[in-house]
Task: inverse folding
């Protein structure tokens, strides 16, 4: 696989190297070029604020937008926001009005559409906004639940999903017309609840499919012109309720496989979704730290799921009880290596896929939590390392796990949010109360 086969300039999106979370619908988190971090010095610009900064995206080569919500766990009504920033100083150029979330506190998502407008899901609401961050359409979604992520399909329609941690009610997949934000067909209710964000890809016949990790199974949905159809011939089971492990976040699609990690519904996530509206408490909750002990005893697990025959390979790279994560893995086919980690106990690992099994080929002692970036051309992985109440960015050699550079962000908190490739030896970092622009010179 070469970079031209990856999530670059996908139909439905504005032409950009990073128009949506993870860089594209396969969630490969890959960018052309590289940082060449070992050859330069990192220049860091950090802005602190009172916000839950979720992700940066690019609309074209020079327009950077940051979206997020407010960490309003109690007190004033929560709301979402999106702003255009100076790509170098992070100063605000335009900012949206307060965007209602239906009372829910969750991270949401933003994307730049091929039509030139911006789309944001936050709590129970979807918004269409102009490039100046002005509201064009505001849509209250049919399901009163926080929604986790959005993607744009090849026909330009918008897909989103509500987040649920149990099978009491199945999660709902909602498809919207990009022009009007009206629903296309009936919402599809999954047989299970679902925590992780959705991914999508094509099969060998150019059919478009959506992939959703559920409570026990992974579900595949065929995208038809006016409806979404559940594929009853493919639903591999990655988790058994009798086992002592947690749910999967979103997956990374690579070379006809879906790569996922389990143990994601840590205690803070459970606290947020046990409340209604999600993430709202009468008084601040003591359960909102991701560092709390996990509700299970199993170690962190990485799974490779075949998209052809439901075969699953698994590995426990760390073997330490009570593993947990708040972000999914990334597979780098150019090196035949998948990167996995354990946020609760610490540790990052490179796992090679041999024909008969998965095998850990390197491990390093850092504590990652974020959605990373990979630069296959230079063999660099970028992820965070949270230590002693400080969050760092580390650049790692994908082949052997060597740390090529470590950069202090100035952020005092880490979470499972998104890193974004700037396209010119630079990245954007988003976390609670801080955003950073980091470039290498």
Result:
């Amino acid at each position: 696989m070469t970079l031209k086969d990856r999530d670059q300039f996908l139909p439905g999106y504005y032409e950009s190297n990073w128009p949506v979370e993870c860089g594209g619908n396969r969630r490969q988190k890959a960018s052309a070029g590289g940082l060449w971090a070992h050859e330069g010095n990192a220049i860091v610009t950090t802005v602190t604020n009172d916000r839950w900064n979720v992700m940066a995206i690019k609309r074209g080569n020079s327009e950077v937008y940051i979206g997020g919500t407010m960490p309003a766990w109690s007190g004033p009504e929560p709301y979402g926001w999106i702003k255009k920033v100076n790509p170098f100083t992070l100063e605000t150029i335009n900012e949206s009005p307060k965007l209602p979330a239906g009372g829910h506190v969750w991270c949401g998502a933003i994307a730049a559409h091929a039509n030139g407008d911006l789309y944001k899901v936050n709590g129970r609401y979807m918004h269409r906004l102009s490039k100046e961050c002005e509201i064009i359409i505001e849509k209250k979604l049919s399901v009163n639940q926080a929604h986790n992520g959005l993607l744009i399909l090849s026909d330009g329609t918008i897909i989103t999903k509500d987040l649920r941690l149990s099978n009491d009610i199945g999660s709902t997949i909602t498809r919207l017309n990009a022009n009007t934000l009206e629903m296309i067909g009936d919402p599809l209710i999954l047989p299970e609840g679902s925590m992780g964000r959705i991914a999508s890809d094509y099969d060998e016949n150019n059919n478009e499919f959506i992939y959703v990790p559920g409570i026990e199974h992974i579900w595949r949905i065929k995208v038809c012109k006016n409806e979404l159809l559940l594929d009853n011939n493919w639903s591999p089971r990655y988790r058994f309720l009798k086992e002592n492990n947690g749910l999967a976040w979103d997956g990374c699609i690579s070379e006809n496989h879906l790569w996922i990690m389990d143990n994601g519904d840590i205690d803070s996530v459970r606290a947020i979704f046990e409340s209604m509206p999600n993430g709202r408490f009468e008084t601040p909750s003591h359960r909102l730290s991701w560092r709390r002990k996990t509700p299970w005893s199993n170690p962190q697990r990485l799974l490779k799921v075949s998209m052809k025959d439901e075969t699953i390979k698994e590995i426990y790279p760390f073997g330490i009880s009570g593993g947990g994560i708040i972000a999914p893995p990334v597979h780098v086919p150019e090196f035949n290596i998948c990167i996995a980690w354990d946020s609760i106990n610490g540790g990052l690992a490179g796992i090679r896929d041999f024909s008969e099994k998965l095998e850990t080929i390197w491990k390093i002692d850092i504590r990652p939590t974020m959605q990373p970036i990979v630069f296959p051309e230079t063999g660099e992985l970028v992820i965070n390392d949270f230590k002693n109440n400080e969050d760092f960015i580390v650049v790692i050699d994908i082949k052997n796990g060597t740390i090529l550079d470590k950069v202090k962000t100035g952020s005092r908190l880490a979470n499972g949010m998104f890193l974004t490739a700037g396209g010119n030896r630079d990245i954007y970092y988003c976390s609670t109360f801080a955003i950073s622009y980091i470039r290498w010179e």
Notes: The first strand starts at residue 42 and ends at 59. The chain has a mean pLDDT of 95.
